Request: fold
Amino acid sequence: MTEFIKSEIRPVFKATTFQHTSKSNNKKRAWKSLKQIISTERSLQWPENYVHYSSINAPPSFKPAEKFSDLSGLPAPYTDPQTRLRFANKEEYGTLIGLPMDITAGYLALRGASSIVG
Amino acid sequence: MEVLQFQDPKPVPDLIHCHGVDQHNAAIIIDNGSYQCRVGWLNQKEPLLTFRNVIAKPRKERSKKDIPESSVMPQLQVGNDITNIEAVRFQLKTQFDKNVVTHFEAQEHLFDYTFTHLGIDTEKCVTHPVVITEPFLNPNSSRQLMSELLFECYGVPSVAYGIDGVYSYHFAQPKSEDNGLIISLGYHTIHVIPVLNNKTSFVNTRRINTGGSHIISFLHRILQLKYPAHANAITLSRAEELLHTICAVAVDYKEELNRWTAPDYYEQNIKRIQLPYSTVTVTTLTVEQQKERKRELAKRLAEINARKREERLAEDEEKLNNLIAIQEMLEIDEDSDEIDQLLVDNQIRNVEDLHKNITALNVKIEKTKEKIATASNEDIVVDDIPIKQSKPNKMVFENEKAMHIYIQNAKKMRQEILNKKTARKQRRQDMAKRRTAAGQERMRIISQLARKEKGNDDFGLRDEDWDIYKTISREGGDSDSDTENEKLLELEELIRTHEPSEIDDTLKPGESHQLHIGIERYRAPELIFKPYMMGSPEAGLIEVIGYVLSLFSPEEQLLLAGNVVLTGGLANLPGLKERIETDLVSIRPFRSYSKVSVIASPSLAAWYGTRKWARSSEFKRSLVTRAQYNEYGSEYFKVHIASNMYVPTPKGHAMDVCD
Reply:
């Protein structure tokens, strides 16, 4: 498909024979994702002083995460045991119990708390 | 209260610029960001092109798979060609994976777009040096492929690489200091880069993998969840617009939240934003108008009938005249061939038949005439009928109070029915899903019913046994019955007649299509400081700044904290500088000096900086020429003040880019 489009509007300034080296062997092969690139990079024997992409990731947070209401964003002292949503006051609880499952699941997923283990 | 409107800005397709004589061999400056790409000439002060680094690749339709590809194939859309980004949202592709370019076929399309719009028309080469920005610690393989693309495909004479944030620090400020802490806020990542004696400290730099795109999608999602009915109208581009227009960073987030709990503050500071809506005109017809319409229809029908009758009358009269003429001819002269012929034409067998026909026709005409007469009288009657069925009469009450009580009662009953309906609806929804309590209870009962117990199965002996089927039916035993619906209508009618404002006009047009955005304005940008709000385990910006500072000696810390510079598009957020200032004070030793500044025009600073660098003497020395590319390999580049460090990929374990 891309070949087709290219052949139609190939700009004049481009070399006619260029092929991406990583594509030339096998057309079907997708590009390496950043994850793959990083893992290849990490596996190599680098000189002592070298810093690579994955070594500058931010450290994990050492502060306890504050709890905020999923619905309003207000500080949330309570958690609903059924839906596991956090809420700030009884009005919010009133709306919370009326929420359909997909919405509650959406809130949990947004907070990254949708896994069964966590 | 002011209601804001979505602007839904549409990108304007870029012009294809002319390739002027003054650009002769001038360098092309490309700030290749994961959000936008800015491109311009060395000898022009402003970037010529600014576009989203995206392409929309139309997919081949499955049904048309067998048909050979023809010219109807939709074109690839690039950057600003995409006028409606929401329409092609699912076909969007970018060359970026996070902040690193990985997909070089997409990059090729974007370079095609770039160079075409710059007006380059030289045969099989781009005769300009290219300066292009790259991410902090760009993996060698990515740079290698970039060089390969630029040299082999576009035939550029020379290339230089640098880091966007570092370029803006050193070259986009009127006077850059030797020491500083760069906070580069990007679309996918935030970098905290310490610079000491004009040297970038790579080891102590940290990257937070949260950026503008996360804020946008977070805002998008919380609004969708808050307004599920408008989930489709709340698009990512609109969330982006909100981030650009009304979002801000709270200087003290806790306190900001506290303020919002007060209803007055909420009312005063809430932003109302109108989603597009179309008024439904059909339902606005009043009862009167509907009746009027009905009357008109009846009238028209009557007219049509009358016309038909008249036509029939005229026809019959003509026929009668004919027959009478034949009769007269018969009286004059019997048995002529002419008369026989006439009789055959009128389908009459004999003279008796003729007489019979004449009398029949006479009766028919008489009847039609009668009908016409009655119909014209009816016209008046038709007008009267609908009036009879107008509104139910207003009930007469002894006093105001009695009426009030009566209406309250009616309202209560109405509410009860509505409650029942919603409860039923909720139940139905719960039943349909598996993991709800109601659904599980249902499954339990079903499995109990299915259990075979030989001998002592007495199910059905009592009539109540059968009720169990009611509880497990999805409808929950009782559905919205017609009588209930009728009752509801009746009650609503009643309330309407006595208190017309109660049900009608509760909403102004479009009010249900308004988004109320309060805390969300601060909640979404707060992600920069609290990535855990979207489940990321990484530390927030202030914590990372503190961590990076802790890697230096106290003297160095003082130098860095004394010159914190914010750059990148997110630095435009109101309040960000103040927030970092106050938080920085809280993590620094008592009374130690710290200063935070935002670079001028943070989104374009990287481009300006890159351009300024390219005008310096260092630029010429930092270019990798085609010859050097051929000699040192594709990952070779020259180190300069704003570049990454060059460490060739270890030999022996040479990275194989093919797999």
User: Anything to note?
Assistant: The mean pLDDT of chain A is 82. Chain A touches chain B through 61 residues (CB under 8 Å). Residues 65-113 of chain A form one domain.
